[in-house]
Automatic annotation (TrEMBL):
The chain crosses the membrane at residues 20-52, 64-87, 107-127, 139-160, 180-198, 210-229, 241-260, 310-333. PANTHER family: PHOSPHATIDYLGLYCEROL--PROLIPOPROTEIN DIACYLGLYCERYL TRANSFERASE, PROLIPOPROTEIN DIACYLGLYCERYL TRANSFERASE. GO terms for cellular component: plasma membrane. This is Phosphatidylglycerol--prolipoprotein diacylglyceryl transferase. One of its GO terms (biological process) is lipoprotein biosynthetic process.
């Protein structure tokens, strides 16, 4: 299980704060079904459907989309398991049998899965002579939604697998309590916000690779910020590994984001340098010209009014975008004739 959702999801049961009660497993006679594995399968199916729907909306062949899902899934599972085996070598003891029998020795590295999926998908798309960034753009929103829903499930069940609902012979519900606010809840809310932003940005024409790079920059950035402000301790072990990969993914996303915009580095450097010189010259005019100093004084005097107008504008913009985003979110699950 990915360690990004571990932390304060379980608190002392003596806490008197408001709590919610959710079972973590259901037993049907001799068969015990965990809530999280079942939820994870459903989340994967929902994400695959949204990916397929986005691709079909852009007239990409269903065969290509389904093959891509299958190949990236295999690559993700393979490298996700390998990376976890390497990072948690103390748990596996470098035993190949423990690596193979994942149903007994459980473990899966999220970033290994991301890398495996990217490599496998990129190779397949290159063979098919399709721009990988074009397909990866379809994957960004469904993937971050899957992370959000996964965090929500972990928040609700508290990562406990020993509490059960026993049916049908004797109906008994052994439940547990957990705090309303936990690390998983913050991940759920933040990832859901990123998903909402991606859907709103999708209403505008963007260059190829925009949404994939957006994901590669902001999702690792969220994880890195939460590691700094929520963990409140020096990272070590797998957490340190995740922070390093977060930084690498952010750097990778920014570099390719810039490259895919097809901008010229020399021209941008000249523009930045020119803007800096204009700022210096403006500052010199302010301190040497009475007229410029008067303009600055008026701007400072009316700055509260300008700030208030800006706040009103931002609030109206956010309100309208939230409403439109809610409509888009509902429309995500609707198929078109």
């Amino acid at each position: 299980m990915d360690s990004r959702f571990r932390g304060n999801d379980m608190k002392d049961g003596n806490d008197n704060k408001k709590r919610i009660m959710i079972p973590s497993a259901i037993s049907l006679g001799f068969l015990s079904i965990g809530i999280y594995p079942v939820s994870l399968v459903l989340i994967i199916l929902i994400s695959a459907f949204l990916f397929w729907r986005a691709g079909r909306h852009e007239f990409v062949e269903s065969e290509l989309l389904f093959d891509f899902i299958l190949i990236t899934s295999v690559g993700a599972l393979f490298l996700g398991r390998i990376f976890d085996f390497i990072i948690r070598s103390d748990f596996y003891g470098w035993s190949i049998s423990r690596l193979i029998f994942f149903n007994i020795y459980r473990g899966f590295d999220f970033y290994g899965a991301i890398l495996g999926g990217i490599v496998a998908g990129a190779v397949y798309l290159r063979i098919k002579k399709v721009n990988p960034w074009h397909i990866f753009d379809f994957l960004a929103a469904p993937l971050v939604l899957a992370q959000s829903l996964s965090a929500l499930v972990l928040f609700l069940i508290g990562q406990i697998s020993t509490r059960q609902i026993i049916i049908p012979w004797q109906f008994r519900m052994n439940q547990f309590s957990l705090p309303i606010f936990s690390h998983s809840f913050y991940y759920f809310a933040t990832y859901l916000a990123i998903f909402w932003i991606l859907k709103r940005l999708a209403t505008q024409k963007k260059h190829i690779g925009f949404f994939a790079c957006f994901y590669l920059v902001f999702v690792p950035l969220v994880d890195l910020l939460f590691s700094i402000f929520l963990e409140k301790k020096i990272p070590s072990g797998s957490r340190l590994w995740q922070d390093i990969v977060d930084l690498l993914l952010i750097l990778f996303g920014l570099v390719f984001w810039y490259v895919l915009t097809k901008r010229k580095l020399i021209s941008d450097v000249k523009s930045i340098f020119g803007a800096g010189l204009l700022g210096i010259f403006r500052f010199l005019r302010i301190i040497t010209s009475i007229e410029e100093a008067g303009k600055l004084s008026r701007a400072l005097v009316f700055s509260p009014l300008y700030l208030l107008r800006s706040v009103v504008f931002v609030v109206k913009l956010i309100y309208s975008q939230v409403l439109l985003g809610f409509v888009d979110f509902i429309g995500v699950f609707k198929t078109k004739k």
